[in-house]
Write a structure and sequence with these properties.
Elements lengths: L3 H6 L4 H4 L5 H8 L2 H17 L3 H12 L6 H12 L2 H15 L3 H8 L2 H12 L3
Helix pairs in contact: 3-4, 4-5, 5-6, 5-7, 8-9
Amino acid sequence: MAGSFPKAGFFASPSLQTLRFSCRVALDNEFSGHMDAALRFVATGAEEDAYGVHRDVRLLEDAMKGFGTKDERLIYRVIRSHWNRARFGAIKEFYQQTFGKALLAQVRSETSGDYREFMAAVISATV
């Protein structure tokens, strides 16, 4: 995944910014369906912060907001994010800044039982 960041960062590069429109606008004009969704996912993360931290924080919150936690989405987001410890640290930090509550505390309040303990262990892991 680390090799993907420089490539994704190309979407936010100064050379593309001189075109005076975002990659998302270009994607609207050229792609549709699943390809559009996949490319938009990459472009959104890259345009916001080049690493997708802001996008992933939003997706984590989306998995927990509203009536009932979307467990499958939450598990996917947490597991996917935790593989890169430095990036996961940035995600947890930005979550705290954005929502005023630690990701661990929010996940604990949204889950229960063994599921809660599992998620807490993944979020709290340092290695």
